[in-house]
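Sample log: Outer membrane protein beta-barrel domain-containing protein.
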Amino acid sequence: GFSLGIKIGTHPIFSHFKSYSFGGEVGYQISNYISILGEFAYGKATNWGDGPLGIPVWPYWGATYSCIPIRATLLHSLIKAKTFSIYLGGGLGYYLITVKWNETIKIKGLAPHVNIGMELRILKRGAIFGELKKVFGPKWLKEIEEYDDPWEKNVHFRRPELIIGIRFYFNASNLKSILLSISRK
């Protein structure tokens, strides 16, 4: 069957930003234990983080960033019970990062990721989930316009993303009737 979800989480791309992301996902279950998941998120810095000894890092720069990851993930259920499941995943994402500082800097590229998560069924067709996702590969990212300081080297993905969300499940006939009822309105 199919799944649709929304999620929110941390988005630690630069080590000196405190940031979050919000997004959605579309999934398809190939078998009882294997699923494909496509996701889109928008991440934004909320403020600067702290450096060594709790001193704010570069607060006078006033830099902010946003990131749009578009990711595809293959999920494998390790434990699949009626009310919960634990899964592992891995995949590839395309990242478009915009840093606003004295100038606007755009960075783009591919990066692989792995994740582990737990899903808890709360409704017949709904579940809440929590996930830990680690992205690798800043060396694959490239700045679109080169400046004196290559910003792609500042993209760390050091800490994993912590994500929570809700998923709704549909089989093909449920999805077809939902789409038909929407199109009639």
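Observation: The chain has a mean pLDDT of 79.
Observation: The chain has one domain: 2-184.
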